């Protein structure tokens, strides 16, 4: 199963403005839904909320991975 492409704010958006859904982050980190929400809840992974939707900026995911290397 492939992850859907990241959501882009506008057509000329730079990579820092790409937003990922929780399922996309799950696929990239190879973690389950609960584990990703735990990372968000504890502040280890930052996100924004748009209405009821949770989105994770790609730079936040990159920063999260870099801090663990």
UniProtKB/TrEMBL annotation:
<dbReference type="InterPro" id="IPR041657">
    <property type="entry name" value="HTH_17"/>
</dbReference>
<feature type="domain" description="Helix-turn-helix">
    <location>
        <begin position="19"/>
        <end position="68"/>
    </location>
</feature>
<dbReference type="GO" id="GO:0003677">
    <property type="term" value="F:DNA binding"/>
</dbReference>
<protein>
    <submittedName>
        <fullName>Helix-turn-helix domain-containing protein</fullName>
    </submittedName>
</protein>
<dbReference type="Pfam" id="PF12728">
    <property type="entry name" value="HTH_17"/>
</dbReference>
<dbReference type="InterPro" id="IPR010093">
    <property type="entry name" value="SinI_DNA-bd"/>
</dbReference>
């Amino acid at each position: 199963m492939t992850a859907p492409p990241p959501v882009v704010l506008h057509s000329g958006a730079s990579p820092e403005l790409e937003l990922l859904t929780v399922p996309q982050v799950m696929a990239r980190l190879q973690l389950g839904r609960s584990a990703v929400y735990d990372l968000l809840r504890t502040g280890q992974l930052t996100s924004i909320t748009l209405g009821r939707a949770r989105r994770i900026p790609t730079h936040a995911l990159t920063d999260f991975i870099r801090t663990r290397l």
